[in-house]
Amino acid sequence: ILIATVAPVATMIFLDMYKCWTKGDIVNIIRHSTVVGPFLGGFFKMILMYHKRIQAKQILDEFDRDHYMLNNFSETYKDIARASIRNCQIYSERLWLCLVTTCVMTFPVMAIALNIYNFVFKSEPTKYMIHDLEKPFSDSPEERFESPYFELLFAYMFYAAILYVVNFTGYDGFFGLCVNHACLKMELYCKAEEAMLADREEVYGRVVAVVREQCRMFRYVDLIQDTFNIWLGIIFIATMIQICTCLYHITEGYGFDIRYMIFVYG
């Protein structure tokens, strides 16, 4: 359903990109692709997560298993787990949410601010769109600013921006949680190994337990790779494309747009 709701705006952008291609307008093609590529990638992540739902469930089960086991451990291990959970909340949840929100919501916030400023302080105000997009099959580019088309498209793009934030916060945030949990597992068995060396009693049993946890951690890392490897490969390629397009934009001497620079850096 969500994919169906964003299909119109994606189609409009692709139509405008085709129109720019026929005119040889490479700059606007880059501008559109910078936004629509990651946007559609967010919905591709939904498909990937459904495809890898079994592996994702196994990861969540591993979370539950480790946290349940920690209830029977000493406070030293619980403190390590609490610190790991706190780091997850700060970096993989809150900080990542702030970063994604800043990168994406810069577009609607700046558009709203510029529209308010122009309508309040200028006698002949200029309208600003969230992402400048010509009206499909229109005779004049100025038709995109006519009411109620402008207002409806503005609200529609604001909705798309919210979906953008949700998609990138959820999937990539989950990846961060998975990696942090792998770090927690390593910290725990390293601490267990230190305790084993400090206490010579029942060394064999403790060594076996530590080795088992190490092997379990390796299987867990393989599970993370199996779950996210497709997306990480796509991200690598997309990053190279983004860098190349930005360098082209800069070297050709086109205007600087703070919104797209923030978005690309994010």
From TrEMBL:
It is a multi-pass membrane protein. GO terms for biological process: signal transduction. GO terms for cellular component: plasma membrane. Keywords: Cell membrane, Membrane, Olfaction, Receptor, Sensory transduction, Transducer, Transmembrane, Transmembrane helix. It is found in: Cell membrane. It comes from the Eukaryota. The chain crosses the membrane at residues 29-48, 95-117, 228-250. Pfam families: 7tm_6. InterPro entries: 7tm6_olfct_rcpt. One of its GO terms (molecular function) is olfactory receptor activity. This is Olfactory receptor 20. It comes from Helicoverpa assulta.
